[in-house]
Design brief:
- By secondary structure, the protein is mainly beta.
- The protein contains 1 helix and 5 strands, in the order βββββα.
- The protein is elongated and about 45 Å long.
């Protein structure tokens, strides 16, 4: 069972002109997750950069990207995010 609380750093940005919101966070194990929501194209892009384990003979890191279609109503708008950050 995953208990949570393993996020070391988190950053959220909004670009109202491009209608994009980006959430980026890093976990204790070094994994870096970036979520980009593009409202004008109705697309969500998730990127995970996972550090490899040398003792298992894995490469230094692995990058995985996932692109999915979204509905604008599923997320808080870039305009609202930019106002929250003020």
């Amino acid at each position: 069972m995953h208990k949570g609380g393993d996020v070391v750093q988190e950053n959220i940005t909004a670009n109202v002109a491009q209608d994009v919101v980006t959430l980026e966070f890093q976990r204790n194990d070094g994994t870096l997750i970036t979520q980009l929501i593009d409202f004008s194209r109705e697309v969500q892009i998730l990127k995970a950069l996972v550090l490899g384990e040398e003792e298992r003979g894995q490469s230094q890191y692995q990058v995985m990207c996932f692109v999915t279609h979204i509905s604008k109503e599923e997320f808080i708008s870039s305009d609202a995010i930019s106002k929250l950050r003020q």
